[in-house]
Amino acid sequence: MMHLAVRILDIRCICFPISPTGSLLDEDSANVSSPCASFAPMTLIDDSDRDAPAAVVSERTELLRSVSVALDHHNTVTHDTEIDAGVCYHLLSILQDAVEDSFDSEEVFLSVDSLSKALRCSDAIAECLLVDIGTSLLQLLFRLVEMNYRLGNTALVASCRALIERWAALEMNLDSIDNHHILLPFLVGAVNGTSGKETVHCAALSLQRLSRPAANKAMMALTGGLLDCLFGLLQGCFPKEIRVEAAEAVKNLAWECVPNKNLIASSSWYIEVLATTTKDKDEKIRGAAIETLVHLSSASTAEKVSIVEVDGLINRLLQIAQDFTERPDLRVSATHALACLICRETATALGKYDNLLDVLRYLSCGGLNNAPAAIQAAMAIKKLVTCSEKDSEFNGALVQTIVAIASSKFCTQVLMWASRAIRQLTLDGDSYRTSTMVEAKGFFTTLTELCKHPHPNVQRPSLEALEALSVNHGGSALVVARSKDIMTMLVETALREGQIHDALARRLAVQTILALATDPPARRAIASQQDVFVDTLTALSTFGSSKDDDTELRQADKALPCSRPCYYSVYVMHVLSALDCAIYYYGGNER
User: Fold this and answer.
1) What confidence tens digit (pLDDT) does each residue in 304-315 have?
2) Please, where are the H alpha helices in 226-345?
């Protein structure tokens, strides 16, 4: 161990800067603006005599007191210079020796206080320093916090904690810290050991700050006992400030780190703890638990199944989503978590919750006047349509829910998801789903209104759905053809001129009319409505007849590459076919 005399000499050399040759710089060359320049030469004290007279001990204490006073300023540049000169290394060495004698001496307090003041430096310099000595310093500070908390020395505990918070605030990458392999086990041990609440709080704070950098997340989650330690803090009867740090640490570890998401989500105990924590009285703890579940809801499919199977979790999310007393952003988060948990493997299990569609419909219709929550709920309904079994009885309730939210017209984004959900129902031409839509009260009225919507993201999916229904599946084409409102809307849309999205809508409208014209029962139904029939033929005969229209058609074809071609010659052929059918129909020679 270095003699105290040498350490004091080193401190004097810091106060009187040394030239590259090793000699003391003269006063003109020194940084006289530095408060350290006011240090007076001190008598060298030998470390060999631990039972030094009170006068000697007092002189040593006075030295540390003068260091503390000299460092008590807020000039960041000066502090950077002092640290570059090595002052913190010497203070740490003095602190280590002082702790060997006593945990609560004035020398210990002054050493800690001086380190705190020196670390008012810039973050870059502080990080360079603590990368080197941070682990050793942290272990020493935790030891002091534990012992002085028991001794009731609150001032020294607060000073040590301030240093720990300064270290934690830097949020350093673990890989860059010397002896980082012992740091995480040390912090876990500080929580799990017979520690006072101040020590546990400092450890939880340190883990929470270390969990923020992306580079640390996987390493921390794989550290033995660390996740169990954090979830134990969440579940235990610890003070609120400790549980807040634990909840934030768990949330950070689950954010943007797929391995961590899957690791946490695979444990039913972790999910049960989170589900219980969402009922916590403290808003910060409750909010962190809900946000963690949002992150976990995007885990892999197997983990989503595990989450959904945890007893009480889905009901808790549904309860939060519709709770008007809850914070609006947390209601949105709960709804988003529900939407993300929906996949083909979980749709059947989620469909068994009787209140699922009721809550989603309530939110989508603007029940809480919360647009983000309404959009998330509408997206969840669209995912249920995509992922549910085609022959499930759940489809009937889904169709009625879609009709309800589309009729509410709460906001454009909700209508967009409703129109996409209807299109999804019609994509595969499943006869069971088609018959469910045909039988649903108000379905075609709602679909017609969506087809008239001015926003292309609402109108286009609706027209695509109507076109699919016009290809005879379960009698839907005949229902479409018999509706004067639908046919009038199709004709008006086909004759509309405007921007490119109008061209797309015109094309879809004409394709729907042509699909109906090639189906004999539907064709007869159109022809029986003479005014609609004439308007339909007019639309067919005029669409694509000009050079400008042909340009629109080609643009529409590029925008809809998966649809069949619809150029002028195709329309002429179908118009002649429709006219031919009309002549036979009105002449009494219907085929």
Assistant:
1) 999 999 999 999
2) 226-235, 240-254, 258-265, 268-277, 283-296, 301-309, 313-321, 328-341
Q: At what angle do helices 197-210 and 214-221 cross, to 10 degrees?
A: 120
Report whether 460 contacts 501 (CB < 8 A). Answer: yes
More confident residue, 28 or 98: 98
Residue 24 β-bridge partners: 18
> What pLDDT score was predicted for residue 577?
58
Q: Is the model's pTM score more than 0.85?
A: no
Task: Quote the crossing angle between the two packed helices 226-235 and 240-254, to the nearest 10°.
Answer: 140
| Alpha carbons 561 and 109: distance in angstroms, whole number | 76
- Determine the Cα–Cα distance for residues 529 and 482; give it in Å rounded to an integer: 8
Provide the token pair at 66.
């003068």
Tell me the CA end-to-end span of the chain in Å, nearest whole number.
111
Q: How many whole angstroms separate alpha carbon 581 and alpha carbon 521?
A: 12
Q: Give the separation between CA 270 and CA 227, rounded to whole angstroms.
A: 9
Backbone angles phi, psi at 310, to 5 degrees: -70, 125
Amino acid identity, position 419: S
What gap in Å lies between CA 25 and CA 433, rounded to an integer?
90
Cβ 527 vs Cβ 585: under 8 Å: yes
DSSP code of 38? G
CB 163 within 8 A of CB 112: yes
**Integer Cα distance of 245 and 126 in angstroms:** 23
Q: Give the whole-angstrom CA distance, residue 431 versus residue 473.
A: 6
